[in-house]
Amino acid sequence: MEQAILQSAHHLVELALQEDLGERGDITSLAVFQENQLHTARIVAKQAGVIAGLFISRLVYEALGGNTQIEELASDGDQVKQGETVLKLTGPVRELLAGERILLNFLGRLSGIATSAALHLAEQVGELPILLDTRKTTPGYRLLEKYAVRVGGMQNHRLGLYDQYMIKDNHIAAAGGVRPALELVFKHRQKLCEDIPVEIEVTDLDQFREAVAMNPDIIMLDHFDDEMIREVGAIPHNSIQLELSGNITADRIGKLGASGIKFISIGAVTHSAPAFDFSMQIGNYADQN
Fold first, then answer.
1. Any idea what the CATH number is for the domain that residue 92 is in?
2. Is the pLDDT of residue 236 over 70?
3. 197 and 104: one domain?
4. At residue 285, what are phi and psi to the nearest 5 degrees?
5. Which one of 76, 133, 222, 243 is the catalytic residue?
6. How many domains does the chain have?
7. Of 58, 168, 179, 189, catalytic
8. Which of 21, 28, 259, 270 stands the most exposed, by the fewest C-beta atoms within 10 Å?
């Protein structure tokens, strides 16, 4: 696991526990259970899909005292069936329940994204186009959500504004057009002396032709329909890679294999992924073997 992902997850777990437990803790469990009363719990998938985020269970229960033993019965990236147990937890029942909702929220969000990515990928025919995510992520959760995208089989686009030039419609409008925007970016890249990719978003064929003349690394075709894509294919664009974004459905992905499009970026894989449904089921250890 990458250290940056672990650090991000640790920070978010701390915030989530403070949000849920406040200063008093789980007052219901404090009232019902003795301090050292032990139980075993299972985390059960209530639907079929791809699992992501199991490692967060250790972060949650370490933050709660570290008295819970965790057995992973699945791995991130596994396709699980409805009713399958993915984790077994044994420890103080107060600790188990204090972390229940936090753990389920993380697993539900990340597994939902991984499952969404896998469903989009299932529509791909051949190796191209390559399916990418976007920056349309939950604030603060970007590293985790992009990790979940990779677990589901898709690839990441840029992580932020800092690791790739991306000239979008507002840059073009403010700079006075496609050409001046690209000229300014090329000048900035030369000043940095770094081979950072330059991508520009275009919304029509005239902008596409103007961008081709400036030879960026990637041209993003924003909301281009099938006829516009065919016209793009007839315009020589040398080694410039093409990306398609906007109005991307699962059905459409399978029809773009021979289009000349290298990348498809899909915001819905993160911003519209349904939560994956898990439950925690507590019982005596002997009942669950």
1. 3.90.1170.20
2. yes
3. no
4. -55, -40
5. 222
6. 2
7. 168
8. 28
Residue 174: domain span: 155-265
Helix axes 3-21, 93-121, angle to 10 degrees: 130
Specify whether 204 is catalytic.
no
| Closest by CA position to 66, among listed 95, 26, 86 | 95
Residue 201 sits in the same domain as residue 280: no
Predicted confidence at residue 66, as pLDDT, reads 96
Contact at 8 Å (CB) between 270 and 137? Answer: yes
pLDDT digits (tens, 9 = 90+) for 61-87: 999 999 999 999 999 999 999 999 999
Same-domain status, 281 and 227? no
Q: 201 catalytic, yes or no?
A: yes
Q: For residues 238 and 282, give the distance between their C-alpha atoms in angstroms, rounded to a whole number.
A: 61
Q: Give all strands (DSSP E) within 46-154, no chain letters.
A: 49-50, 69-72, 79-80, 85-92, 130-132
The tokens for 2 are 């990458």
Catalytic annotation, pick one of 26, 199, 201, 243: 201
Active-site entry in 46, 101, 252, 255: 101
Q: Is the pTM of this model over 0.90?
A: yes
Q: What is the mean pLDDT of the chain?
A: 95
Model confidence pLDDT, tens digit, residues 98-150: 999 999 999 999 999 999 999 999 988 888 899 999 999 999 999 999 999 99
The pair of structure tokens assigned to 228 is 């516009």
Take residue 196 and report the two structure tokens written for it: 């950072």
Position 286 pLDDT exceeds 50: no
Q: For residues 99 and 172, state if they share a domain.
A: no
Q: Which of 136, 179, 189, 209 is an active site residue?
A: 136
**Is 209 considered catalytic here?**
no
DSSP letter for 235, please: S
| H or E stretch at 117 | helix 93-121
